[in-house]
């Protein structure tokens, strides 16, 4: 009997089965589809072998039984083809109802074909002289091949038509699986004595297993927990099926692999084993310092919250003397986000916003958090469009010199436009731009626009000495800031003396070394610096001493406090005296009345900035403002 290839295929399937059943798996739809294909293929190979045996012993067995076995083998071939279609449909049709409808359609079509296979006649080819060539032929076989080809065409059609919705690796694996099966079927159709279809089916299953369905690919090798890839697949599946779930993010203070020493490796695994034993949770290792617990039942999740916190407080190790105190971010209801991809983003967003705010190291990702996250997303898109489509504008607020009694400088302030051309105030987008790093591109665009204005408008003809340009905290921490800004000034042939960069106290605290390195390079090039928002930070007097600045800018809140709080007057008087003692100039921001202006002038403040003189103006109006004030009398 020519069943050597079938037996080889069966041995291969049994080997795969052993490994597959001894590996940790998830309840993924793709896993279910693969298991269905595996079982049908296994049955197909078994019936292939049985059909050969039944033909071999046809003279000893009832003919109806032989026909049933042989036709069942043919029906199983259609089952293999159907399993290929349904495997692709899992990726194509994400929604549960849509998948059920489409799979039902293909299943009913295949079932009708199977009935036809059982109805049509079947012929047997066997040898009475000891030849081992045994196979079937006839209308039933022809119908099987015809219907199988139709189903395989459906597979290729879906892969091509829905290629944007199918995992690229799945497309590649399924194509290889179906191609091997198709080639074997064609060879066997024209050479019936070559019974290779069953073996080809097993090869196809092996391809799927190795490329996609090996459960090991969903596991973190160091901990044995499900990995990030498994997390993404599973949350997407639950969201597509409309199933609500809860997630608890356990975030460790340092790297999960480093907060326990090497000698205490067993204690680290003790934590992992404890989490794995939680009966109602899927446990995922997301990133280096984060483990996620997913619960399908919110009540169960909230039952475990205090238990987990208490267990970590008990300590780990043989003597319970190893303490690992994580922080927690809890998402009670997954339906507060629009899709699965936003879940991890929301957890990260809440973690980032509340990391230093929560004394109990426990934060909840609620509807308010989700709303804030989506608002930031909208703002990010707004900033991206503004940068890509050049919707960035620079407004200028004139600064008045109390010594020269005229406008001698201005502060450049960024504005962006939305799709309707409306100006968006900086309070809406600056924090978001700093948070996601887009402030670097935004700041560079502003600086380049300032340099263009200085060159094209010849601002010195209006009596201006310099333009102040703000640097954000992120820019101050950028190592190539000086290099990039010097290139821009050289490109537009702008004198560095016409540039005054404003740094903030927070910037000098968070990135002091990098900032100082940049400042030294820019100072050597000829650029000057101001310390912005004086009075809003901590230890600000020390930073005036440390930072090589020429100008100190009093924040609006400090200026207002001088007129509203008696004690603030003494503080401001002392600050002014100290700053003058270091031969530094002072700019007072937020001046809105004549009384405030006169008071600041009497205190010896060198420059005045505020609505008393002008609000921030777009470029054209700013030039007109300067031109209009050249002929005016000094302010008194």
How many strand units? 17
Largest sheet: 8 strands, mixed, barrel
Q: In the CATH hierarchy, what is the architecture of the largest domain at level 2?
A: Alpha-Beta Barrel
Strand content: 5-15%
**Alpha-carbon Rg, integer:** 37 Å
Written overview of the protein:
The longest helix has 30 residues, at 63-92. The chain is an alpha/beta fold. The strands form 3 sheets. The chain has an 8-stranded mixed β-barrel with strand order 8-9-11-12-13-14-15-16, surrounded by 7 helices. Helix content is 56%, strand content 14%. It has 3 domains: 4-216, Rhopdopsin 7-helix transmembrane proteins; 219-365, 2-Layer Sandwich (Alpha-Beta Plaits), CATH 3.30.70.270; 392-629, TIM Barrel, CATH 3.20.20.450. It is built from 23 helices and 17 strands. The protein has helices at 4-21, 29-56, 63-92, 96-119, 139-161, 168-190, 197-213, 228-240, 265-276, 298-314, 341-354, 367-388, 426-436, 439-457, 473-476, 481-491, 505-510, 512-525, 540-546, 556-564, 566-581, 594-602, 619-629, and strands at residues 123-125, 135-137, 246-251, 282-287, 290-295, 327-331, 362-364, 392-401, 406-417, 423-424, 466-470, 499-504, 528-534, 551-554, 585-588, 607-609, 617-618. Strand 8 and strand 9 form a beta hairpin.
């Amino acid at each position: 009997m020519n069943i050597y290839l079938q037996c080889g295929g069966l041995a291969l399937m049994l080997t795969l089965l052993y490994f597959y059943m001894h590996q940790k798996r998830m309840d993924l739809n793709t896993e279910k589809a693969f298991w269905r294909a595996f079982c049908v293929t296994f049955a197909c190979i078994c019936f292939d072998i049985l059909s050969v045996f039944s033909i071999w012993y046809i003279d000893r067995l009832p003919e109806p039984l032989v026909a049933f076995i042989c036709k069942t083998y043919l029906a199983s071939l259609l089952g293999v083809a159907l399993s290929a279609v349904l495997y692709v449909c899992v990726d194509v049709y994400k929604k549960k109802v849509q998948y059920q409808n489409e799979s039902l359609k293909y299943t009913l079509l295949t079932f009708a074909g199977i009935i036809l296979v059982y109805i049509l006649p079947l012929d047997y080819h066997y040898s009475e002289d000891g030849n081992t060539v045994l196979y079937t032929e006839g209308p039933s076989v022809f119908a099987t091949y015809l219907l199988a080809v139709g189903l395989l065409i459906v597979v290729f059609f879906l892969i091509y038509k829905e290629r944007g919705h199918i995992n690229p690796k799945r497309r590649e694996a399924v194509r290889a699986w179906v191609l091997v099966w198709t080639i074997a079927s064609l060879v066997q159709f024209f050479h019936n004595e070559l019974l290779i279809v069953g073996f080809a089916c097993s090869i196809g299953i092996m391809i799927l297993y190795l490329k996609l369905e090996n459960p090991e690919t969903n596991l973190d090798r160091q901990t044995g927990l499900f990995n990030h890839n498994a997390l993404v697949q599973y949350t997407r599946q639950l969201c597509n099926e409309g199933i609500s779930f809860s997630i608890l993010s356990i975030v460790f203070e340092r790297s999960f692999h480093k907060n326990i020493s090497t000698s205490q490796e067993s204690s680290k695994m003790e934590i992992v084993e404890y989490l794995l034993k939680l009966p109602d949770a899927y446990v995922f290792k997301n990133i280096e310092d984060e483990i996620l617990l997913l619960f399908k039942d919110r009540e169960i999740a909230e039952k475990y919250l205090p238990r987990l916190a208490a267990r970590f407080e008990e300590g780990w190790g043989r003597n319970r003397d190893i303490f690992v105190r994580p922080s927690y971010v809890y998402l009670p209801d997954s339906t507060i986000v629009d899709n699965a991809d936003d879940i991890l983003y929301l957890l990260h967003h809440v973690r980032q916003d509340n990391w230093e705010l929560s004394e109990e190291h426990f934060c909840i990702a609620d509807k308010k958090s989700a709303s804030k996250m989506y608002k930031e997303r909208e703002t990010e898109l707004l900033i991206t469009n503004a940068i890509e489509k050049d919707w960035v504008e620079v407004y200028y607020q004139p600064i008045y010199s109390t010594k020269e009694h005229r406008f001698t400088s201005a502060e450049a302030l960024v504005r962006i436009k939305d799709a309707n051309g409306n100006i968006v105030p900086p309070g809406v987008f600056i924090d978001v731009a700093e948070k996601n790093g887009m402030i670097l591109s935004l700041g560079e665009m502003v600086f380049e626009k300032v340099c263009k204005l200085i060159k094209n408008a010849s601002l010195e003809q209006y009596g201006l000495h310099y333009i102040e340009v703000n640097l954000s905290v992120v820019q101050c921490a950028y190592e190539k800031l000086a290099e990039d800004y010097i290139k821009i000034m050289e490109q537009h042939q702008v004198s560095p003396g016409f540039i005054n960069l404003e740094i903030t106290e927070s910037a000098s605290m968070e990135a002091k070394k990098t900032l100082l390195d940049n400042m030294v390079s820019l100072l050597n090039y000829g650029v000057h610096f101001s310390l912005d928002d004086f009075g809003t930070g901590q230890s600000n007097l020390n930073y005036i001493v440390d930072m090589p600045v020429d100008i100190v800018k009093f924040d609006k809140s400090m200026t207002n406090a001088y007129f509203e709080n008696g004690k603030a007057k003494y503080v401001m008087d002392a600050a002014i005296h100290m700053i003058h003692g270091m031969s530094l100039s002072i700019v007072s921001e937020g001046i809105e009345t004549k009384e405030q202006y006169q008071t600041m002038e009497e205190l010896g403040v060198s420059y005045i900035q505020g609505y008393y003189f002008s609000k921030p103006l777009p470029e054209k109006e700013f030039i007109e403002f300067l031109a209009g004030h050249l002929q005016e009398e000094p302010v008194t």
